[in-house]
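Box 3.1 A note on notation
Throughout this textbook, protein chains are presented in two layers. The first layer is the amino acid sequence; the second is a token string describing backbone geometry. Keep the layers aligned when reading.
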Amino acid sequence: MTAPVCLVTGVGPGTGAALVRRFAAGGYRVAMLARNAERLEALAAEVPGTAAHPCDVVDVEQLRGTYERIRSAWAAPEVVIHNAVGGAFGDFQQIDPEVLRQNFEVNTMALLQLGRLAAPDMEKAGKGAIVCTGNTSAYRGKASFAGFAPTKAAQRILAESMARSLGPKGIHVAFVAIDAVIDLAWTRKRMPDAPDEFFCKPEDIAEECWHVAHQARSAWSFNVEIRPFGETW
């Protein structure tokens, strides 16, 4: 049998790369999307069964062309994970309105476009999963989150609308909120005194996304929150 296809956006050195490795290990062919072609090519050389697709998810025509190339070369994706993210800190008086608009394009509009591309193929197959990685800014508008929280809240609500529309057709849509500082080189450098258990491991995030994408139909989740055991919430 031909291996199924998973499409992952926002493939960077943390969660994105971990998602690629987990789904490749699980038998998927993984199409990797990000703007950094060099990083994608390096990961493709490292992980068998993957392919680099440099793409700016904000560019609708570029995203559509990339999806069609994946579909033609391999097959329509059975799993789509929207991991690309745009963010900026500051209160509503400090942020650049243009940055907020750009973050909306990455976080929300790209999810809309991905869903519109993938859903028809998933409907024909009678199965599929669309998973969006988010964070708890989607649930709370803290003062310094004005540059991205509105876009993540919109992303979550859009995903919920998609879930209600696609669920009865056999397509699982879920929102995985990461309430944590992700364990990356730059976050470790920024917080050198934080204990190891303070950070959320990218491979553990990927494992939960794998689980969500493969839940039994009788027990689907939509809102999924994950955090380190010591996180205050």
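The beta strands are 5-8, 29-34, 50-54, 79-82, 128-135, 171-178, 181-182, 199-200, 223-226. The first helix runs from residue 15 to 25.
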